[in-house]
Amino acid sequence: MLLDGKKLRDELLLKYKEKIIDNNFKIKLAIIEVGENDASKIYINNKVKCCMNVGIDAKVYHLDENILESDLINLINELNEDETITGIILQSPIPKHLDFDKCSSLIKQNKDVDGFTKENVYNLYLNRKNILPCTVKGIIKLLEHYNIQIEGANIVIVGRGNIVGKPLALALENRNATVTLCHSKTKNLEKITKNADILVAAVGKANMITKDMVKAGAVLVDVGVSKIDGKIIGDIDKKAYEAASYFTPNPGGVGPMTVAMIIDNLIEMKEGEK
Amino acid sequence: MLLDGKKLRDELLLKYKEKIIDNNFKIKLAIIEVGENDASKIYINNKVKCCMNVGIDAKVYHLDENILESDLINLINELNEDETITGIILQSPIPKHLDFDKCSSLIKQNKDVDGFTKENVYNLYLNRKNILPCTVKGIIKLLEHYNIQIEGANIVIVGRGNIVGKPLALALENRNATVTLCHSKTKNLEKITKNADILVAAVGKANMITKDMVKAGAVLVDVGVSKIDGKIIGDIDKKAYEAASYFTPNPGGVGPMTVAMIIDNLIEMKEGEK
User: Fold this and answer.
1) What does the pLDDT read at residue A101?
2) Would you state the pLDDT for residue A88?
3) Is pLDDT above 90 for A33?
4) Residue A75: is its pLDDT beyond 80?
5) Measured between CB atoms, does A11 come within 8 Å of chain B?
6) Can you identify the CATH homologous superfamily of domain A24-110?
7) pLDDT exceeds cutoff 80 at B123
8) Does the beta-carbon distance from B185 to A152 stay under 8 Å?
9) Closest CA to B39 of B116, B99, B112, B92
10) Which among B106, B151, B173, B175 is the top mutation candidate for probing chain A, defined by the most A β-carbons within 10 Å of its own β-carbon?
């Protein structure tokens, strides 16, 4: 059965829109873009459009690619202090002479829409109230929407990146799943994935998860994005869907949820202000 | 075969002592004790003795159990600023009217002997240079000493506490192990532990890991401590040793290593000052 991220996103965005109107929320998102990057432009456009759709004011702060780090820091500090700004995103990547981790870590914890700051990671680690990274939150909402039980499930995550794999492992452990985190040095990967009740692939290697690596009835979540001949290909071979009880299409599964969770986080942050 | 933590500790302490003399290191450890706790007194005594043995000056700052949080914070700040102090330990537990996580997080990252501050956890998470929590470091040193390969190993950790389970999972992932973190909500625990090349038990439930839960030839690391009739009993039933290639005795395995790693961390911090 399809885990339809597109459909759920559309439903959620309608709900968010109503909620924002009903509560008369004034929410403003600041997106910082440094330099020129075609992929970033597409992502930023998507975020801005999505915000507009639900009645959130999104402003892009575009900085020259040769900017000094101190200028970027000054802008972040200004936005931190600006009470009209609900949340801040520093769009990655930024030019190499700027330290992304350092700069993004300066975003105030309660304005950290992406959930990547030190404070939020620490709270996630300690299972305290935190802002979840959008992709992580999107996956969890999608599973919950389809009543797929996380507690007690054996969940195998392939890929240990800082954006998905690592924070997802912590977030699922906090929800009482038993998590195995796999990566390029994992031996006998197919033996491990075959034990998964829920298998999440977040590597970016086209079709690396094949049908023989999947337990019958498993739930498959595909976060991987590879581009082959201009087409988006996920980490999970489509033939593997045959073995699954549920699966996310890719595209159309986790991706749409990620953008919706920016809105979800912004509303959560607005409600936290009260 | 025995993973002899006591023997390795003694060897390491001799090495540390030489190193401190050879480099003429002036190392000073501040241990903060709040209130009266019999178990804490024993732990603190062990730490002080161990420091004395290698030529480290350890001073215990004893505070009354009714102290204000602001007084504790003031002491931590003073010790942070004191250039003669190499490292600081806030001995847990502290009285309930004081917030342990908040106060211990105020210890400067480069004086954080226990490796529990926000900064150190964040660095561990990102696989950057960090101070490893002593038990975690002790387990890794013990495995390395006996040439047990961590990279690529399937490691199952039972117990997801903040002192051992969680940071150990991150540290072993950073060393390219494939880690599964189990806990009280894990289903079919025996099926998971049976796949472990290295099985770490850190729950504190006497003899919970039995021989039938262990793969033949596995490495067993027992961190659990339960007291039954005044005797220390580990999490791993001694009969399980028969199935193992290597095992830590308990007591005499991980425990002695933990104290030695306080010294290891202090030397690392002293060297980092240069």
Assistant:
1) 83
2) 98
3) yes
4) yes
5) no
6) Leucine Dehydrogenase, chain A, domain 1 (3.40.50.10860)
7) yes
8) yes
9) B92
10) B173
Is A149 among the residues known to form the active site? no
- Place A106 in a pLDDT band, splitting at 50, 70 and 90: very high
**Per-residue confidence (pLDDT) for residue B274, from 0 to 100:** 66
CB < 8 Å to A199, chain B: none
Quote the CA–CA distance of B255 and B42 in Å, as a whole number.
Answer: 13
Give me the architecture of the B25-110 domain, per CATH: 3-Layer(aba) Sandwich (3.40)
User: Assign residue B209 a region: left if phi > 0, alpha if psi is -120 to 50, beta otherwise?
Assistant: beta
Q: Which residue in chain B is spatially nearest to A155 when comparing CA positions?
A: B180
User: How long a stretch of residues is chain B?
Assistant: 274
Q: Of A125, A162, A187, which is closest to B166 when you measure between CB atoms?
A: A125
Does position B112 have pLDDT exceeding 90, yes or no? yes
Question: Which of left, alpha, beta for B48 (phi over 0: left; psi -120 to 50: alpha)?
Answer: alpha
pLDDT in tens, A205-261: 999 999 999 999 999 999 999 999 989 999 999 999 999 999 999 999 999 999 999
Residue B101 forms contact with A (CB below 8 Å): yes
Q: Tell me whether residues A179 and B183 touch, CB distance under 8 A.
A: no
Residue labelled with tokens 């996580």:
B101
C-alpha dihedral, B258 to B264 to B270 to B274, nearest 10°: -140
**Are A78 and A49 contacting, i.e. CB atoms less than 8 angstroms apart?**
no
Token pair recorded at residue A114: 């992406």
- The overall average pLDDT reported for chain B is 96
Quick count: other Cβ atoms within 10 Å of Cβ B57? 15
A118 at B interface, C-beta within 8 A: yes
Domains A24-110 and A134-256 share a fold: yes
Question: What's the sign of the alpha-carbon dihedral B221, B225, B230, B233?
Answer: negative
CATH of segment(s) A134-256: 3.40.50.720
Q: Does A102 touch chain B (CB under 8 A)?
A: no
What are the sequence ranges of the domains in chain B? 25-110, 134-256
- Selecting among A114, A197, A235, A237, the annotated active-site residue is A114
Residue B202's Cβ-side half-sphere holds a number of Cα atoms within 13 Å equal to 26
Question: Is the ipTM of this structure higher than 0.90?
Answer: yes
SS3 A246: strand
Using the Cβ of A155 and the Cβ atoms of chain B, whether some distance falls under 8 Å is answered with no
Exposed, middle or buried by CB within 10 Å (0-12, 13-18, 19+), for B251?
middle
Looking at residue A274, its pLDDT comes to 66
pLDDT for B101: 83
- Kindly provide the residue ranges of all beta strands, DSSP E only, lying in B85-194, ordered along the sequence: 87-90, 154-158, 178-182
pLDDT for A39 equals 86
Q: Which residues does residue B156 pair with via DSSP β-bridges, in sequence order?
A: B180, B199
